[in-house]
Design a protein that fits this description.
Order of helices and strands of chain B: EHEHEHEEHHHHHHEEEEEEEEEHHHH
CATH architecture of the largest domain in chain A: Roll
Number of domains of chain A: 2
Oligomer: heterodimer
Number of helices of chain A: 5
Distance between the termini of chain A: 44 Å
Strand order of the largest sheet of chain A: 2-1-5-3-4
Helix content of chain B: 25-40%
Shape of chain B: globular
Number of strands of chain A: 5
Number of helices of chain B: 13
CATH topology of the largest domain in chain A: Ubiquitin-like (UB roll)
Helix content of chain A: 25-40%
Number of strands of chain B: 14
Structural class of chain A: alpha+beta
Radius of gyration of chain B: 19 Å
Number of domains of chain B: 2
């Protein structure tokens, strides 16, 4: 079948690509567009490693068809840091040693940013609930939760 | 995943045409949280996928005193549970839509998809049945309506004919002195599938010190091949006073009609026990809400709510 032409915005930059209908947004981000910060974990919507925002809504990019993002805005982990430096969440993840192997980290960062955008001062319960769709098999979550709580209020 | 033709119609008429042309080899895509997984696992290998998110009727979420609540089939859970009108008037739906998957899933997954996927353990379906919801269906032969309780026909199977699609789910505005609650049991706090779920709607009559059950609807998840309406529990309550004894009798009636199986989520006897506990709690939660009390959902209570008649 012929390829589908998609125009969208990724991390603020107008982007266009060609994809096959069966390709997920995750696949296109990583393999066609070079946004390898977004990770593939389970590829069935359980682990959150591929979290991105789609028109500001947090989603698993493995469960989005690339063709569906026509006209939409995608946010990946590459969009967090600015020319001035790391995003406060990234800084706090480093300070609290909130990662070990690092595969889950981009997903946690994107998910945490989506939380703080919606709720700048979450309780610990709210952080844990929001991040339930992100799995980490190294840290035991405590350091991640502490980093997000520490970043809250200071994050933009 | 096998390749397929991706289509994104902008009108209902076009969507129905795209579906009818392919019959059984076309699939509707809304949130994709079930469909994409199933296509990847090759459970379905459609030739054509019809994305209905650009169809206005499927994207509408509206609430009016006269027409009630209409949830388009492509409206994601997050839009439903963040809606002020839904929170105020349909708290039982908020209960259910907040616990389907995690935040990432709730940004995409729809109640329409939860219904069409027809899983026996679907969290939203008992809540919809409790509210007396109706499915609005369109197909090559026009529109039809079907009560949600008749929509699921077997695990993973529904009443839609080839070429038909679910457009929206409708329910009328709850009467004064009514309330609803849905809860489930899972062995963790989030991100799991119901071992058993129970939804209840009650409309109360009588004076504030001597309330009686006027209308009751109860439905269960994960204890039968399809989401299970329990008219026996309603019959045990309607016309009866609101107290612990009448509620216990309704819970016992629900235990009698549940047909749980043993699987990896729990043995049948355990599930039957849970039916009693959860039916009782769903009814108490619904009664307390009908009386204007605050009853936390699973997210607000982190699963540690106390269930007592207020």
């Amino acid at each position: 079948m012929s390829k589908i032409h998609v125009q969208c915005t990724i991390n603020g930059e107008p982007t266009e690509f060609l994809c096959e209908a069966r390709q997920s947004l995750l696949e296109v981000l990583r393999e066609e567009l070079g946004f390898t910060g977004t990770k593939e974990g389970c590829n069935d919507g359980n682990c959150g490693a591929c979290s991105v925002t789609l028109d500001g809504v947090l989603v698993d990019s493995c469960l989005v068809l690339a063709a569906e993002v026509e006209g939409k805005t995608v946010g990946t982990v590459e969009g967090l840091a600015s020319a001035e430096g790391l995003h406060p969440l990234q800084q706090k993840f480093l300070e609290h040693a909130s990662l070990q192997c690092g595969i889950c980290t981009p997903g946690f960062l994107v998910a945490s940013k989506a939380l703080l955008d919606e709720n700048p001062n979450p309780s610990e319960h709210e952080v844990r609930h929001w991040l339930a769709g992100n799995l980490c098999r190294c840290t035991g979550y405590d350091k991640i939760v502490r980093a997000v709580l520490d970043a809250s209020g200071t994050a933009e | 995943m096998r390749d397929f033709e991706y289509t994104a119609p902008t009108t209902l008429r076009e969507a129905v045409k795209l579906l009818s042309e392919k019959g059984d080899s076309a699939r509707v895509l809304a949130g994709g949280t079930d469909l994409i997984v199933q296509m990847r696992a090759r459970r379905f290998q459609p030739e054509r996928v019809v994305d209905i998110k650009n169809v206005p009727e499927a994207n509408e979420l509206s609430l009016s005193p006269r027409k009630g609540l209409r949830i388009g089939a492509a409206v994601p859970c997050q839009r439903i549970y963040n809606d002020e009108g839904v929170k105020e008037h349909f708290a039982g739906l908020t209960d259910a839509s907040m616990i389907i998957g995690g935040i990432q899933i709730q940004g995409r997954a729809t109640l329409g998809g939860n219904l069409c996927n027809a899983s026996p353990s679907a969290d939203s379906i008992p809540a919809l049945i409790a509210y007396g919801a109706e499915a609005e269906i369109i197909g090559p032969n026009g529109k039809r309506k079907l009560p949600v309780e008749d929509f699921c026909t077997a695990p993973g199977a529904n009443a839609l004919q080839p070429g038909e699609m679910l457009v929206a789910i409708r329910m009328s505005m709850p009467k004064p002195n009514s309330g609803a609650h849905y809860l489930r049991f899972i062995p963790r706090n989030e991100m799991d599938i119901a071992v058993v779920g129970a939804g209840a709607f009650v409309e109360l009559g009588g004076r504030s010190k001597s309330r009686v059950f006027k209308t009751v609807r109860v439905a269960l998840a994960a204890v039968a091949p399809t989401p299970l309406p329990v008219p026996e529990a309603a019959a045990a309550l309607e016309g009866q006073p609101v107290n612990d004894e009448t509620i216990a009798a309704a819970a016992a009636a629900a235990q009698q009609v549940a047909k749980p199986i043993s699987d990896m989520r729990g043995p049948a006897e355990y599930r039957r026990h849970l039916v009693g506990v959860l039916t009782k709690r769903a009814l108490i939660g619904a009664v307390n809400r009908a009386n204007g009390e605050f009853v936390p959902n699973a997210v607000q209570s982190s699963g540690h709510a106390v269930y007592q008649l207020s």
